[in-house]
Design a protein that fits this description.
Largest sheet of chain A: 8 strands, parallel, barrel
Shape of chain A: globular
Number of helices of chain A: 12
CATH topology of the largest domain in chain A: TIM Barrel
Oligomer: homodimer
Number of strands of chain A: 8
Distance between the termini of chain A: 39 Å
Helix content of chain A: 40-55%
Number of domains of chain A: 2
Strand content of chain A: 5-15%
């Protein structure tokens, strides 16, 4: 086990908090956030000292029809600028680019964009395609991070090979991702040691993106942070696909860096998250997500169960764990 | 840091799961459970392989008027027997006895009772009174455990002294309790090491009772279990005071002992917890409990905030963290 880095009465300046509310939360409401919501979230993040704010996906309009989604599925440059102007703040702007669902021609040189960071999301079998994207974005002048998704169902040998390839790439940060919310802290810490060793070898930071199926998103985030992971993804109120994510308001309560000002997040929750939830937008830990998390499965069955307002948990448990 | 004990593909036979749904959950609904609820919970616990089921408090009728509470505040022998008969099962029956709120004359010799375990709950300043109770119950033939409450606001020196006294007592198990849900896993593990050292010295098991203010009840339970804590408190659906407890359905998904059968818990949730929540009984992680947890305070202000259906979190944050 790696030594603990830092302690509860000081802080590590290498730690960065990455707000993913619009991007992961957009998976819940089809990216249909009001302009007010987005503008106030930006202001709250700036005031709270958040390091990065992810506005959404940079999705290909060849693959997805803009008529079917809110604008943050595509993150047009002018839409981001309508919120942030020239972004003369300490908050950096991020967007996510999925392998196979992004048009590289949509990404201008950094000199023409207010975006600072592009986050590449890849499955393990797409690593060569991910590396093409990473190199393109890095050459254009962006910071680049890479999320390897669904590692809880990948072979450890393949994961080791993927990490070596990404270590040699131009990515600045490699993310440990618990896509299904299936991993316990002892497993996350073992994986974190693997990622941190590659980070050490190739001089890269390591990030974490956790899901809350087993009410472990916050715990997994702070436990892996305590052994050296430094890019910490969070969303306000934990808003995100299915069981959601690590809550920003929990994470800021743990971090001791005085630049983080949690009260701004509470204000935002009160003004925007309470009415959003009242309007019927639903996410967060619940029995159906526990069941898919324990079964190490994508939560799509649980999301459908939620949408149908089912509560027959024992039938769902039998369905999800069926062997045939 | 202590070595990990056990691993994720085997199991430790010393681990016991203690269901506290009626006792800690009773703090939410004034112990007014239907007879059906209690009978089905007993059956579900037996079928699920749970080791102990806590029925409620053994509260003094001098201190509390039975007219003001459901019957599980008092746990009369005949009320327990109406549910369990002679309890010819592997499930053991527990009740809680608060220092200063229990009449020792209400506790018959074990030979006259179907109760197996009495759980003494004490503040650190009440330890001598707690020890009187422990010795009385042990002499009467019961298993005895002791919970030291609110340790996150006690001095570590006093805690060390208290643990030594309890180590020399007849208690079988000493419980590490995070009353305010304020402790992070690294703090809980540091405390667990302290308790485990006393347990080692005096040949006692150590238990954990966690609260979910910061969504850490499950994480704190399994992290401290992984270094040797063996009595694990949980409640179905996490039902309990304020933010609630470690969920039985999460804990059984972590433990690998084949005697635990999680499907029975899902069935119980479907039949009883869904309607209970619909009827307006409220518990579980929410912003107000995060705020009192972060502030290391009793959740009573957050419970009142919840009862008043307030959502002005930033005002509440200012109230709770006021210096004057």
């Amino acid at each position: 086990m790696l030594e603990q880095k830092g302690d509860l009465t000081s802080f590590r300046p290498d730690i960065k908090v990455v707000d993913c509310t619009l991007r992961d939360g957009g998976l819940v409401n089809n990216f249909e956030f009001s302009d007010d919501f987005v503008r106030d979230l930006y202001k709250a993040n700036v005031a709270a000292g958040i390091d990065y704010m992810e506005f959404g996906y940079k999705a290909s309009k060849e693959v997805f029809d803009p008529k079917d989604f809110g604008k943050w599925k595509f993150c047009n440059e002018e839409d981001i600028r309508a919120v942030v102007g020239e972004n003369n703040t300490d908050l950096k702007i991020a967007v996510m680019a999925d392998v196979g669902r992004t048009d590289l021609n949509d990404i201008p040189p950094k000199s023409e964009s207010v975006v600072d960071l592009i986050r590449v999301a890849t499955y393990i079998y797409q690593i060569p395609a991910a590396i093409e994207m990473i190199e393109d974005f890095a050459k254009k002048g962006y910071e680049v991070t890479v999320n390897i998704m669904a590692i809880s169902t990948a072979s450890e040998t393949e994961l080791d090979l993927a990490l070596e390839l990404l270590g040699k790439s131009s990515a600045n940060v490699i993310y440990l991702v618990d896509s299904y919310g299936s991993l316990f802290p002892e497993q996350m810490c073992r994986l974190a040691e693997k990622y941190l060793a590659v980070g050490e070898k190739y001089n890269k930071a390591i990030g974490i993106h956790a899901h809350n199926n087993q009410q472990l998103a916050f715990a997994n985030t702070i436990q892996t942070a305590s052994i050296g992971i430094s890019y910490l993804d969070a969303t306000v109120n934990g808003m995100g696909r299915g069981a959601g994510n690590c809550c920003t308001e929990l994470l800021l309560g743990f971090l001791r860096n005085p630049k983080y000002k949690i009260a701004n997040i509470f204000k935002f929750i009160e003004k925007h998250m309470v009415p959003l939830k009242k309007s019927g937008v639903t996410w967060g830990s619940d029995i159906q997500y526990i069941i898919t998390g324990q079964a190490n499965q994508h939560p799509r069955a649980a999301i459908a169960f939620t949408a149908e307002k089912r509560t027959d948990y024992s039938k769902f448990y039998t369905e999800v764990t069926a062997y045939e």
